[in-house]
Structure formats: C-alpha cells, structure tokens
Amino acid sequence: MARSGKSGIVHFDTHIVCWLYEGRTELLTPAAMRAIETGLLQVSPVVQLELAYLHEIGRINRSGNFVLEALAKDIGLSVADVSFAQMVKVAETLSWTRDPFDRMIVAHAGIADALLVSKDVLIRKHCTSVVW
To answer: Quick one: fold of 12-127?
Structure first.
C-alpha cells in the first residue's frame, strides 16, 4: 500500500485492523483507502484488547500483539496513548451503543481529534468524524 505523506490522525475500528492484516483492502472504500494512505495511522489500545478477545474465541488466528506488530512494520500503525480515565469519561456519554469496545474506540478517536475508519453502521450513524 503506497503512503503519500501524512495529513491528520486516522484511527481504525477493530475489523479494519483485521482486514488490513489479512491484506483484504478490496473490502475498503476509496475514501477509507485515501485516509489510510495519507494519515498518521493509530489504534486505541482498546483495539488491542478486542483483538485479544477475538483470538481467544478463535475468530482470528494470531494474537493482537502479533497483528499490531505486523501492521506497525507494514504500514506504520502505532498504538495511541490516552488516559484511560479520560477515555471512560467520554465513553460514558455514548449511550447509543451497549458495546464497550465501540464506546471506547469512538471515545479515543474523539479525544485524539482523529478520523475513525469503520464500516460499522451504528458508529457511522452517530459519529461525524467517521470515514467509510
């Protein structure tokens, strides 16, 4: 995947991380690809935790650490840092979902003033800074 300079911060929802790791970029929209090709690529540590759960239940074959380390080498993805207390405070206000991972991923992207790449319909319905 060609990288063409950095624009803003771009966070990924967990399913996007899985698709990128699997090389399934055909599942991404042109707008999502543009964000990936030009942004500073990060994920919330909550994505790392969700990947661990997915690995534990057999939904993905590799650990979250393995996936994120591979994407760090391949596309420069990093795990962003944020105060957990700050993330939870914002996540508490996101009453449109019962999914704790989605709440914290969206909260972290908002705190970071980042675009969030996600196909999730509910996230896209309630968040203005989502790219799909």
So the answer is: Rossmann fold (3.40.50)
